Amino acid sequence: MTSYPPKKNEAFTFPAVFYNSLGDIVTNPTIAAGDLKVSIDYGAYANLTTLPDVDPDATNQVKLSLSAAEMNGTVIHVVAIDQTSPKEWKDAEWTFYTVVGTTLTNITAPVLADYLTLNFTSVKTQLGWSDSVEITAVINKTFQSYGVSTEAEATDLTKLHALADVAVWRQALNDISLDYNWSADGASYSRSQAVTAIRENLMYAESVAIAYNPAYNITVHTLDNNPDWRE
Q: How far apart, in whole angstroms, are the C-alpha atoms of residue 79 and residue 94?
């Protein structure tokens, strides 16, 4: 399957194009057994198990597929050398650096949770938030605002974090909105200051994230305040 980044010991497929001696992309290039070889961790080269093919048919896109065994290394080097004479297409090569195979779905919550913990430690501490309740709620609301079910689908990290900031301050405002000012033993305690500060932070976060609101748009109209100027 195709997944990024390329994972160690997991099948990997990627598209490629081939160029002729003039530097033009070759349409429907001819590829024969032995034209493409792979080296794993700087080892000996071996023919690809699956012969690359043009896909879609009669186009210039070539689909190259590496098996799990051919991806079982840290450095995967693929070379393409046309064995015909004269060559139909120029030599090419690709190098991939693999990572240990862990799907993004399995690390979805911790990645965003780590961002929240790193940037909102004081909020978590002062409001007594737990990862299993409030942080989970913030993450779910962030995904909902983004329109995805998992972080793997949220490909725009800037957008994800902007929406997460909004979700944090909305959750904080919800948790503290019922607090009130009070006095005891000659001392006064103004909790409304915290509410005000959170509201200001929320307004700023919303101003940053407004560009990611699908309902947000800017409309420009001409303004004619002086119709008598027209002839």
A: 7
Query: What is the spatial distance between Cα 133 and Cα 129, in angstroms, rounded to a whole number?
Result: 7
- Give the per-residue pLDDT at 141: 93
Encoded tokens for 59: 């186009």
Q: What are phi and psi of 73, to 5 degrees?
A: -170, 175
Hey, CA dihedral for 126, 129, 134, 139, is it positive or negative?
A: positive
* Cα 7 to Cα 10, 38, 74, 128, distances in angstroms: 6, 16, 9, 39
| Buried-state track 18-42, b at ≥16 Cβ within 10 A, e below 16 | bebeeeeebeebebeeebbbbbbee
Residue 83 has pLDDT above 50, yes or no: yes
Looking at 81-200, which runs of residues are DSSP E strands? 92-97, 182-184, 187-189
Q: Which residue(s) pair with 92 in the sheet?
A: 80
Those residues with Cβ within 8 angstroms of residue 20's Cβ, 6 or more apart along the chain or in another chain:
26, 88, 89, 90
Question: ω before 227 within 30° of 0 (cis)?
Answer: no
Query: Smallest Cα–Cα separation from 100: which of 1, 9, 4, 2?
Result: 9
**Which H helix or E strand runs over 195?**
helix 192-209
* More confident position, 115 or 177: 115
Q: Say if pTM beats, i.e. exceeds, 0.70.
A: no
Q: How far apart are the first and last CA of the chain?
A: 68
Whether residue 132 is predicted with pLDDT greater than 50 in this model: the reply is: yes
Query: Higher confidence at residue 106 or residue 161?
Result: 161
pLDDT per residue over 133-159, tens digit each? 999 999 999 999 999 998 888 888 889
